[in-house]
Amino acid sequence: MKKIYSTLLFCLFLLLGSTKAQNQNALAFDGTNDLVRTQGASALIAGSNAISMTCWVYPQNPSPNGTYDGFCGFRNNSDADFYILHFNTTTLEVRFRNSAGGLFDIISGGIQLNTWQHLALTYDGSKLRFYRNGVRTDSLAASGNIINPADTFYMGGLPYGGSIFNLIGKLDEVSLWSKTLSASEVKCIYSAGIDSTEAGLQLLYKFNQGVAGGNNSTITTITDGTGHIDGIPSNFSMTGTASNFVAGKTNVFAATATFCPGSNYIWGNDTLTETGVYTQVYNTIAGCDSTVQLTLNSVVDTSVTRSGFIVFAIQTGVGVAYQWLDCNNAFAPISGATNQAYVPSVIGSYAVKITYSGCTDTSSCYTFTSVGIAENDYNSNIIISPNPAKDFCTISAPAISNATLLLYDVVGKIVVKQKFNSMSELPLTTLNSGVYFIEFRNTNGIIARKKLVKE
What we know:
Mean pLDDT: 87
Structural class: mainly beta
Shape: elongated
Low-confidence stretches: 1-22, 372-377
Number of strands: 39
Distance between the termini: 38 Å
Number of helices: 2
Helix content: under 10%
């Protein structure tokens, strides 16, 4: 079976690129010594009277005065400056210094803490312009160019003398261009992101590497999307939510869809056969490159949760069917195990095959290394009458005394807890219809389990 993605998006976009799965990460800097260097990057713009730089920033330092927080750019304080720096709580310093030492500074207000903002700095040989969130906020007459071909491009800090103005915050989508971005191009980048094949694009760091907040200690370079020069990170812990890859600025049009596993899903010119997150680059009717991100899910939710001795399938709905399988026996169906919940009676590995809305899919296997007392150990001595029951049932177990009776629902929640001594009446009037599990415990732990059906 094939499904075709046909929404308004495809009336608005013309397909340019191919489908790919990717993360949407950023890079977090701890303000101490985290830094990314791109050696010799000034060679990419040397001698040009047309330079641009853009980035998404998430500043977190409320008092950068004096120490300052460098976002990105070139800074040798001599003959090659082109940078953006957090000057004080609400202002930025943006600077262009040409190779003749000519200095051109803009102090721009309006920066906000703890929120993503898009910044762009452009130079065309006669004017320096600064943009925030796609809108030009400042401009200044400037002249000259940068001739030095050996200067380093910095991210997350800028050098000053023998020290570094380190950033406390996050960066995403940092780019360097050997062209002057127009106002409309800056607005497009702000609203729709950057296509790595754009003319004049020299560096593009999306930071979509690793796992956000995970262990990324094996990553030793920051990938340049243009293929020119990868950045070199230093002093990052690469674990946790600081000094590491973290969730970034998602600048995409989001879409979701479902399909049956084993079938095909047609998206633009691509045929998808697996669930996942995919992106494609389009050209909008406004002339901007734009990214659409599709999250493709299975019609069947094969998620399984486990609570103590019970394993539960998450999928519910009209007509849903369950069949629990023995993973250690070639996924053989387990006789009678056709409920949403399953209680293993022996140590092993189990999965559930779920059929819903015309689709069938199977969960991962879940291993039980211990099941406590086997379900049938006390079964012959425990009588539940009636079962199924409606308003109440009587439980008789002469061999069990001085115990606690626990009644679980199918999501593992204890709905009844009472003392038990050989016989007890269990009220059911407040409970919904469905499958429940009775557990008997004493000071030695679990001593018996039984299944109860409430009509």
